[in-house]
From TrEMBL:
InterPro entries per record: IolE/XylAMocC-like (IPR050312), Xyl_isomerase-like_sf (IPR036237), Xyl_isomerase-like_TIM-brl (IPR013022)
Signal peptide: none
Example GO molecular function: isomerase activity
Domain Xylose isomerase-like TIM barrel residue range list: 28-223
Protein's recorded name: Sugar phosphate isomerase/epimerase
SUPFAM superfamilies: Xylose isomerase-like
Top-rank taxon: Bacteria
Gene3D superfamilies documented for this protein: Divalent-metal-dependent TIM barrel enzymes
Keywords on record: Isomerase
Amino acid sequence: MTIPADGIGMHLYTMRDVLAEDYPGTLKRLADIGYRTVGVSGRYDHSADEIRGFADDAGLRIVLEHVGYARMADNWAGALADVQTLGAQWVVVPSIPVEQRSIEGFRTAAAAFTEAGKAARDAGLKLLFHNHGHDFNEVDGTVLYDILLDVDPELLGFELDLYWAVDGGHDPAKLFQEHPGRFPALHVKDMAEDGSWEDVGAGKLDFGAMFEHAAAGGVEQYLVEHDKPTDSWASAERSYRGLTEI
């Protein structure tokens, strides 16, 4: 398949070292590489309005922002207003607290996501959850992630991190098929032979096989991510090429 150009983005966690030094310059250089969209992760002392301006100047569209789990109970309305200011469509909770990694804890999270998802919907946004590998742990015969998949699809979608899904023992293609339309955004993160992170296209994950079913999953945005690149810019350029060649 060919990924639409306006669906290729960068999750800015990858670029955190250079963002801290020059946020607007980083966005412009990402646009020069070919990226069209970004996912925000960290403000670096800039306001939502300033970051929106940086993105507009660079010709990039902000599609989502990561907002901590605790924020759902602490001025969630303010968080949603900031996501609106950014011009994004999705507000993403990136993880569930470690003390809630149990069946009861995930049920508590599911209830919180239901209420937060209603508020997001009322604000013209959609709430997504971003996974790690441990979210697929099985406890007493129940896969924790399945508890979240049972939340009303109108109120909760998912930003599927492909690396962490595979790390957790799950096949993204199967998830796309079994839960259609639930995965509007992806973290496209590759896995090295030793299990560590790798630039997109340079590792062992079969993205082509996954993406054959991306349409069923509702995928709109393919956001590159690398948790610990040796050189952020080399990684960004190599991953862009890798993603466009899938």
